[in-house]
Task: inverse folding
């Protein structure tokens, strides 16, 4: 079945540091890929998405590129802020009404 | 996109009681999903709820423990029955919407069972 593997956290960075959170997947066919963010005490919000190979999703300074050859969708941000402290989930779906498969989440803590 | 609200936002309950969580969406959707997120964990799908039919439960979840109603295309309830401390979790309502069937989530209901 489909699966998503994320780097384990927590990740602790200083403000303005470069962020990479690794995500790899296994899936049949051509899944759509997503990053969700969960701020403390809140539900999940869709951060960005990519629906086909080589697509780059971007939002709020975060980016991720759909790499089919390496089955990866790593999340990056050039300069993190304290307000980016949250848990980040990588996810995929085969489309239509197929289930969404989530990674285990990576907690990011940004310190001033 | 879809805007989802849940009630209650949090509750503290006694062992053996039941709690019903409500989920309201601002648009009509075919499928609604209920997830559980245990402390420090990822999301686990409990069931998928279609309007006018019985919910479909994932392995490890049963209707007697988590009865679901779906009376119309914008509303659903999840009941956590005969609660035990192991049921302490965040319960999230979710729908699919948008051009690529993105998944949208409600703010969650934080349940603590004593």
Result:
């Amino acid at each position: 079945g489909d699966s998503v593997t994320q780097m384990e956290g927590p990740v602790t960075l200083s403000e303005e540091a470069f962020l990479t959170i690794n995500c790899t997947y296994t899936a049949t066919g051509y899944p759509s890929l997503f990053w969700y963010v969960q701020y403390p005490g809140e539900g999940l919000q869709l951060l960005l998405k990519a629906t086909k190979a080589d697509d780059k999703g971007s939002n709020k300074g975060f980016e991720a590129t759909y790499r089919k050859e390496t089955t990866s969708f790593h999340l990056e941000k050039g300069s993190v802020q304290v307000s980016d402290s949250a848990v980040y989930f990588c996810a995929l779906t085969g489309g239509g009404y197929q289930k969404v498969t989530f990674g285990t989440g990576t907690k990011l803590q940004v310190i001033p | 996109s879809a805007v989802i609200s849940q009630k209650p936002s949090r509750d503290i309950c006694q062992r053996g009681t039941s709690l019903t969580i409500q989920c309201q969406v601002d648009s009509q959707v075919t499928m609604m999903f209920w997830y559980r997120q245990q402390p420090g964990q990822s999301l686990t799908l409990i069931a998928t709820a279609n309007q006018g039919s019985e919910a479909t439960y994932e392995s490890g979840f049963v209707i007697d423990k988590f009865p679901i109603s779906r009376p119309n295309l914008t509303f659903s309830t999840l009941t956590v029955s005969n609660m035990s401390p192991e049921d302490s979790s965040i319960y999230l309502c979710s729908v699919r919407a948008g051009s690529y069937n993105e998944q949208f989530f409600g703010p969650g209901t934080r349940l603590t069972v004593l």
Notes: The mean pLDDT of chain B is 92. Residues 30 and 52 of chain B are 10 Å apart (CA to CA). The two ends of chain B are 37 Å apart (CA to CA).
